[in-house]
Each structure stands twice: as C-alpha cells, then as structure tokens.
Design brief:
Layout lengths: L1 H11 L9 H12 L3 H20 L7 H7 L5 H15 L3 H12 L1
C-alpha cells in the first residue's frame, strides 16, 4: 500500500506543480486517490467484517476496551471522562519536569 502511495506521488511530481492552480491540482490528486467502486466495496466488506469481529468479542474485553464500552463517547459520562483525560495529559508530572530541567542544565 505504501509503495502504491509513493509511486502515485512520484508520478505527480509535486515540485513541478509549485505554482499550479490549487483547484486543478486538488482535482488531479482526488482522481488518483479514488480507488474505484470495486475497491471501495472490498474495503467496506473488510471494515464490516472487522467491526463484527470486534463486536462479537465485546464480552471478552478487559482494560481500556471494557472501559470504553462502559463509558462510550456518545454518553455524557464518556465525554466528561475524555475531557478529564485530555486535561491530565496537559499537566506535566514531576518526572517530566525533572527531565526537562536536567536536560536544560546539560
């Protein structure tokens, strides 16, 4: 997949389009990014299969998966918990501060 993306980008040669009209270039890129109806159907079938597989094993989940099942982001509680988690990620801990100050001394 990554080789396909790289070869698609190589064939476009973005540096040659430095001053090209943006709408024209975006339309060309969209055409190249469109996998076509058959490929989209295969992607949809695979996605459906993966979701059904996860849902069938939902009772076997533990840890974060079980927590996310209990407090879905579509619920008020889930949104509150996500906001709290985001806030906690923004608060540096002592280890982070010590590392930063040690690095600054070097």
């Amino acid at each position: 997949m990554q080789n396909t993306i790289k070869s698609s980008l190589d064939s476009i040669k973005l540096t040659n389009h430095y001053l090209v009209d943006e709408d024209t270039l975006v339309n060309q890129l969209l055409e190249k990014a469109n996998p076509g109806y058959e490929k989209r159907q295969k992607i949809k079938q695979l996605a459906t299969k993966l979701v059904e597989s996860v849902r069938s094993k939902i009772d076997q989940m533990d840890g974060v998966d079980a927590f996310m099942k209990e407090y879905d982001l579509s619920s008020k509680e889930g949104i509150v918990l996500m906001c709290m988690a985001e806030a906690l990620l923004r608060i540096p801990d002592k280890g982070c501060l010590l590392y930063t100050s040690d690095a600054a001394d070097e």
